[in-house]
Amino acid sequence: MPKTETSGLTQRQVQSFIDDGFIKIESAFSSEIARQCRNELWSDINLSPDNPESWTNPVVRVGLKSSPPFIDAANTPQLHIAYDALAGRDRWLAPNALGTFPIRFPSFEAPGDDGWHVDMSFGTDNPDFMEWRANIVSSGRVLLMLFLFSDVGKDDAPTRIRKGSHMTIARELLPLGKAGATLRELSASGYASTEDCEVELAIGSAGTVYLCHPFLVHGAQPHRGKQPRFMAQPPLLPKGEFDPALPPSPVQIAIRKACGISS
User: What CATH number does residue 44 fall under?
Assistant: First the structure.
């Protein structure tokens, strides 16, 4: 493996990120911060944890949140060390907001947004989100992150993750160069090329964070539990464009490994 900066994570964690496309960090931020964030989100959606009769929609979305508890959640020392280890030291921007928040409620109604997908990273000024793009160097995004602000069990609509799917997507993006592909193009087949991947559920206690490769295929699912699920799914943004002169980060090593590129 090429030399990388991995201080703060074990080599096993880094290798798991390269091979599987994600790692789980428990207690990445405190349960108290998670509680403060939930309280703000309840207020934002004008609903109450004490009035389940009002939970009539399967999912309610909140955009970016930049108040102190959300900034604190995203910028703990433990997470900064992990960002350095996976994205490359000083190659990322400290989050100054978190979002979006798909808040999922117990419901037998289909949520309507539970398809498999890859999050796009540039071209997001296009009003048609199906025209947003991703490319082989993941311009505009160095990580996909899943922040759990409530306890999430297997029945609480945990995000589904296709382990190793990031490598398949890398191989599909490689011949498309810097222009990459749109969400419409990548999703045309329903991500059939990754359907044999083992599925992992993003479960954990409030304060857990999943740090994921930007090409990881993932999807929502209906909520069959009892308590609403609060989660944010922000990107970690890069400081600048991809620089091939720098030592490859684990994000880049995974792409190279997928494409059979040695270094």
Answer: 2.60.120.330
